[in-house]
Amino acid sequence: MAMMVVLLEATDGEFSVRPDQISQLARLGVSNLALVRDPHTVGIVLEGWLFDPARSGAEAVRSIANGGRALHPVLHMAVTTAVPEGGRDVRDIPHART
Questions:
Q1: Residue 71: phi, psi to the nearest 5?
Q2: In angstroms, rounded to a whole number, what is the distance separating the alpha carbons of residues 84 and 86?
């Protein structure tokens, strides 16, 4: 799934995404949108299986707000609580013994 984050300078008021903006993002292949913020910055996380940030990222930024800055993923990694040494040794599994 492709992902892109749009950063905007926060304003004093509430930030919202209008229905026409959501429709435009859907036409660009965006299927998930998350809104994050702190006192200084608003972030809009755009994701979608059909979304291609290289092809339509600039248009996605323009559909949300002028002056937005796009961040593209550099690393996407799944994390796990599995033992770092790996799985069990096949010799320790009773039904696998020969």
A1: -115, 130
A2: 5
pTM of this structure: 0.76
Gap between the Cα atoms of 86 and 41, Å rounded: 40
pLDDT single digits (tens) 67-84: 899 998 888 888 877 666
Q: What's the burial of 94, exposed, middle or buried (CB within 10 Å: 0-12/13-18/19+)?
A: exposed
- Structural domain spans, the chain: 2-71
**CATH class of the structural domain 2-71:** alpha beta
Q: Is 60 exposed, middle or buried (0-12, 13-18, 19+ CB in 10 A)?
A: buried
- What count of residues does the chain have? 98
Please report which helix (H) or strand (E) contains residue 66, including its range.
none
